[in-house]
Design a protein that fits this description.
Elements (H helix, E strand, L loop, with lengths): L5 E6 L2 H12 L3 E6 L9 E2 L7 H10 L4 E4 L2 H5 L2 H7 L4 E2 L7 H4 L1 H11 L6 E4 L2 H8 L6 E5 L8 E4 L2 H13 L5 E5 L4 E9 L4 E14 L3 E12 L6 H21 L6 E9 L5 E7 L7 H5 L6 H10 L2 H4 L9 E9 L15 E4 L3 E2 L5 E2 L3 E10 L2 H14 L5 E2 L12
Parallel strand pairs: 1-2, 1-4, 2-3, 4-5
Antiparallel strand pairs: 6-9, 7-8, 7-9, 10-11, 10-13, 11-12, 12-15, 13-14, 15-19, 15-20, 16-19, 17-18
Helix pairs in contact: 7-8
Amino acid sequence: MEKNKKVLIVGASARDYSLAKKFKSYGCEVVVAPGNTAISEIVECLDIREDNVKELLEFALENAVDLTVVSSEIALKNDISRLFQANSQLIFAPSAQSAEFTLSRSICRKFLYKLKFPSPRFAIFDKPQFAVDYLKNASMPQVIRADEYFEHGDRLVCTSFSTAKTFVEDLFCKDVKKVVLEDFVYGHECTVYVVTDGYSALHLATVANYKFLEEGDGGILTSGIGAFTPDYKISSQIQDYFMTDIINNILLALQKKGTPYLGILGADCVLQDDGNFVVLDFKPFLADHDSEAILNLVDENLYDLFEACAIGAFADDYTCLNVSDNASVSCVMSSRSEGKVIKGLELVDSDITYFALKKNKYLEYETILGRNLVLTRTAKTLSRARKFLYEDAELIDFEGKKYRSDICRQVENF
């Protein structure tokens, strides 16, 4: 009898909870490093930091890990993929060099410009005074971002020079090395995800994104506060164009550099009212707020899929990816305070994925400041998924609870 496959997942966030559940459902033996409290309740977690790639390799070698899957940007930056490949370990992750355009906004902007992809007007600065001088004549609103992502306050949409100036100066005070300024683009925001071995790519999902904290796209710009998939606003013609003109050209450019991209690649885009497509950013894996929504619809065995990419059999084994005709809607539940008991989790039917929550001595989850959990509901239609999602959201209760109630509100017959 064939032994169960052993999978190492490197990461510590909500998407890793989703991945761990998915691999466990195949009968895989799953280990997550470093994981978090919630993940440790369903699989084993290792006390190894994401940046300690040598110790992660030692664990994989000593414990006969069959496949390593990396969602952690920290591990990618430390080139875990190249280290594992050099030691004959199967890994589903891009190298640091191939993924650099997904990890650095300044590199991303230059990459988009070089490939002549439609993208916002931008400027990159490593000194605050030069950035402030640029802002004096820049069109508003301006999106201001730190070059590399960090958890709290790395981006802001500024509608006035004074706000923009203050935020730029604050970023440099936080020891940010570079800031990227770009014109705000109005339209429908979505993310197109593909799976690729570096030479061919297949469409995985297109997700409608909600990134502003307040309803009606107001308030602070976040990394993601809710999503739904499939995104009915993105037609098959637009999707085909994107795969042919954007994704394939990206892969070809990386091949020519000798740095083929292996893994999941997400492209953040805006569909404008005139039908034009603007590319904003890239992700080196699924985002926390949409991972469960996507994985709930994937009918492929992820182990087989990721292994095929890692061993070079992807193009031979897959001509398309099987995705169910269901629909998923998700929302992030945040807290304005910490240390408050979260009640009602056992009452909901929606899927729950957790951020870095802790349990108290009574084994109750307590809130952290900011993002706490992602609530995801899957149904035959978007309208039913949305209805059930918000019914469950009402059942979860904690002091300072906050979430957007307008996700997928425009849906009627989908």
